[in-house]
Write a structure and sequence with these properties.
single chain, 145 residues, mainly beta, Jelly Rolls, 5-stranded antiparallel β-sheet, RmlC-like cupin family protein, RmlC-like_jellyroll, Bacilysin_H2HPP_isomerase
Length: 145
């Protein structure tokens, strides 16, 4: 559309969320807002579900900055600090987490009964997910040397 002030809004109902996105073991991502679903250019948004007593695999989101809002459950977010080893951030509904680009992390849901659900927003239109074997950060420019 040539007039940027008269474009249409897009509604993505909960029943319309798509599981056709990058995945990591131990969690289920569903996509709501993306280039595929609404034609966004610079934004990806969706949900992640982590079952009770489940940990995700270690992963990072490449160049994407990631914002996370905890909807339900009490998920924990784990990353590695070179000086202090593994660091765990325990959350509750209403909390937010910021994940900088390239930072390996994992989600954990220690609750024995309740699924954890979070809303995710990323600064790239694609859901970049790079599954990695460990939490220690490796400079991506040196990986293929």
């Amino acid at each position: 559309m040539s007039d940027p002030f008269h474009q249409r809004l897009h509604h993505v109902a909960a029943a319309g969320l798509s599981g056709d996105t990058a995945q990591t073991t131990g969690m289920r991502r569903v996509e709501a807002i993306s280039g595929k679903t609404v034609g966004s250019r610079n934004l990806w948004m969706g949900q992640t579900h982590v079952a009770a007593r489940t940990n995700s695999g270690n992963h990072h989101h490449g160049e994407s900055e990631t914002a996370i809002y905890v909807v339900s459950g009490n998920p924990s977010f784990v990353f590695s600090d070179p000086d202090h080893g593994e660091i765990r951030i325990d959350t509750k509904p209403g909390d937010y987490i910021y994940v900088p680009p390239w930072v390996p992390h994992r989600e954990e849901n220690p609750d024995p009964d309740t699924e954890a659900v979070v809303v995710i927003s990323r600064t790239t239109q694609e859901a970049i997910v790079v599954n990695v074997p460990q939490l220690e950060w490796v400079d991506p420019s040196t990986r293929d040397r």
